[in-house]
Design brief:
By secondary structure, the protein is of the alpha/beta class. It has 19 helices and 26 strands. Helix 13 links the parallel strand 20 and strand 21. The structure holds pimeloyl-AMP (WAQ) and magnesium ion (MG).
Length: 636
């Protein structure tokens, strides 16, 4: 049965809309023509007003069969990563010297319907028609569906690539799609096959092109062009699907390398002692000025004893979720104590502060809610908002006027205002009187995260409500047991109704094995100590004032009403250097960088303890000033 070539080109008001070609046996022609014209008449770019279909018979001897190039993928995390791979493969083809030039050519080739033929022998482009380029046609996949009506970039690209590398004198091809949404391309050669590369550009970029790498010492350019434009080719054995990533780990390795380049790579340092104001690191004793154990209770003898006793009396683990087998008298005792401590009706424990925020917010809010969230809120609040599917309206940092404007101009059925009480990277305190007043006025719930407030602010360290003399109380007080209380876990303090609701709805509460006995007993003991010894919190508050004065005297700008004292450096690399220098000098104060804080606002984040002495604080301030002079210039 004779075979035919069918080519369809469609346009609308003179502009190209759709084009396709097929090579098919006679019996499939009419179905193919109808499918192709349907495609042109219902095209995303508009209904074609001109469709040109050309049907030509192919003589049996004219048709060449080719095996499809083997396909592989070399995904990269970034555009530059993809080009690095392209250059590497060009190098393997013996084209290292021309690699940069070829890549630059691909990235800058002018818009055309065809391709550039680049001659290695002369280092020049062979351009019979500069505007149009060289068009490869008369090709198809064998047994391609006659009626397939949607474009398949991948199949069409492998067919074209297979034909191109079989043209006389052609060594390889570089290709980038010109579809703004399709950021994929490839490098192909007989030696490497079809190597899929993505991303080769940012989404939205309409640039695309093809370069056929040719050597006029191997063949005549006219023969190559004739083959590309005239030879009838059917490609066999096409892979059915786009390939999966050849090495699924590579994308992660590349992202890690990129983080390192930008000084945003994170790694852990190891501490070989309990968390106290002095810790052991690699055999050295280092003054810790970054711990959340603000009252130095993590290493308190009484707290440790309580934990040890509880482990002996109650066992190592809790064995289940609170709602199954993991609820003990210890859990309930601690919850009662927390409710009393925060002056609320009830309390509920979570395994971590992170889980508390995620669980509380996603339980209280849903897709019908609007959450008003401070722009500096902790990541766990942000994640809770995301998980809730609520609409999130971010207001300017601690700016109650902006919050009110947003409350006025946003329509909502259910609302929540949520804010850190003490902001974790800046150390400032939420304007709770205004925030709770707005909550009442606009009938939305209010919630604060007291992770860095409990044990730190308020006349006796009870937190934000005490700090504001009990004049204002939010609906939900979230807090942690892991910071000033030196143990581990998170909690919600609120009305009985809200707490009962959370027990029934908060998934991070329901679907987690409850806290271990030792943790609970440690937190209970720490709470007792905090209440019995208000001097601890007061001593911490004194240390803050004293340390700020020392910094000021040493010429370092810093301000904070809480134990978190940020010293902004700006540049990420400089902040790392200052932190390294301080560690050399025996002070552990890590640098905080993006994404924890905004890019270009990298900082030292000092966290003070009640046990730091004035002498230690003074020396630290001087060391910071010296390290900043050395590495951070006048940035602070
Ligand atoms: N002959 C020569 N050059 C062509 C042809 C042709 N028949 N068709 C397109 N070009 C040129 C033209 O300059 C385009 O701007 C450029 O190539 C890109 O063409 O998932 O979609 O049709 O593995 O946008 C490759 C990745 C997709 C597929 C390639 O190319 C995958 C693609 P496009
Ligand atoms: Mg395209």
């Amino acid at each position: 049965m004779p075979t035919y070539s069918i080519k369809m080109r469609a346009s609308k008001s003179g502009k190209h809309v759709s084009g396709a070609e097929r090579i098919l046996p006679q019996q499939d022609i009419s179905r193919a023509v109808s499918a192709l014209s349907e495609r042109a008449l219902h095209h995303g770019l508009g209904r074609a007003d001109f469709i040109n279909v050309k049907i030509e018979e192919i003589q049996p001897g004219e048709l060449q069969y080719l095996e499809a190039l083997p396909v592989s993928a070399r995904p990269a995390a970034t555009v530059e990563g993809s080009y690095a791979i392209m250059r590497q493969i060009l190098g393997e083809l013996g084209l290292a010297a021309q690699a940069d030039k070829l890549v630059a050519l691909l990235r800058s080739v002018h818009p055309m319907r065809g391709a550039v033929l680049y001659d290695l022998a002369t280092d020049r482009c062979i351009e019979p028609d500069h505007q149009r380029g060289i068009r490869v046609t008369y090709m198809d996949a064998e047994s391609a569906s006659a009626t397939g009506s949607c474009k398949n970039h991948f199949r069409e690209a492998v067919v074209l690539a297979t034909k191109v590398v079989h043209a006389p004198g052609v060594i390889a091809e570089l290709c980038m799609s010109d579809d703004p949404e399709y950021v994929t391309g490839y490098i192909s050669s007989l030696r490497h096959g079809y190597v899929r590369l993505t991303p080769l550009k940012e989404v939205g970029n309409p640039h695309g092109g093809r370069i056929f790498i040719f050597d006029s010492r191997l063949a005549d350019a006219a023969d190559a062009i004739n083959y590309l434009e005239k030879q009838r080719v059917l490609v066999r054995g096409l892979p059915p699907e786009r390939p999966l990533n050849a090495d699924p780990q590579q994308i992660f390795a590349e992202e890690l390398a990129r983080l390192k380049e930008k000084s945003l790579y994170r790694s852990m340092r190891t501490i070989d002692s309990p968390q106290s104001k002095y810790v052991k690191m690699r055999g050295r004793s280092v003054l810790l000025l970054a711990s959340n154990s603000y009252l130095d209770l993590a290493d308190d003898e009484r707290v440790k004893q309580a934990a040890a006793q509880a482990a002996l009396a109650w066992g190592a683990g809790s064995g289940g979720s609170r709602l199954t087998t993991g609820n003990t008298a210890l859990h309930e005792q601690l919850e009662n104590k927390l409710a009393q401590f925060k002056s609320t009706e009830a309390a509920l424990l979570f395994n971590t502060g992170y889980m508390a925020n995620v669980g509380i917010i996603s339980a209280l809010c849903d897709s019908e809610s609007v959450i008003f969230s401070d722009e500096y809120n902790h990541a766990s609040i942000i994640d809770g908002c995301r998980l809730s599917k609520a609409r999130v309206v971010v207001y300017k940092h601690n700016d109650m006027r902006d919050l009110e404007k947003k409350l006025q101009t946003t329509a909502y059925r259910k609302g929540l205002i949520v804010s850190d009480a003490v902001f974790s990277m800046d150390g400032d305190i939420v304007d709770l009187p205004r925030l709770t007043a707005l909550g009442k006025q606009y009938h939305v719930l209010t919630m604060i995260d007291e992770a860095h407030a409990t044990g730190v602010i308020g006349a006796t360290g009870k937190g934000t409500v005490e700090y504001y003399d009990y004049a204002c109380v939010p609906d939900i007080i979230m807090g942690t047991l892991s910071k000033a209380l030196g143990a581990e876990g998170g909690f919600a303090c609120a009305s009985k109704t809200i707490i009962e609701y959370l027990k029934n709805k908060a998934r991070s509460f329901i679907f987690a094995t409850s806290q271990a006995p030792a943790t609970l007993a440690a937190a209970l003991k720490a709470l007792e100590i905090l209440e019995a010894e208000p001097r601890r919190a007061q001593r911490l508050q004194h240390n803050v004032e004293y340390f700020l004065r020392c910094l000021h005297d040493a010429g370092v700008k810093a301000e904070s009403p809480t134990a978190i004292v940020p010293i902004v450096i700006g540049n990420e690399a400089a902040a790392l250097k200052v932190a390294d220098e301080l560690l050399q000098q025996g002070c552990l104060i890590p640098a905080i960088r993006y994404p924890t804080v905004a890019k270009g606002t990298a900082r030292l984040r000092v966290a003070l303890m009640s046990s730091h002495t004035e002498a230690e604080l003074k020396r630290t301030a001087q060391l910071i000033a010296a390290a900043m002079k050395k590495y951070a210039g006048k940035q602070n």
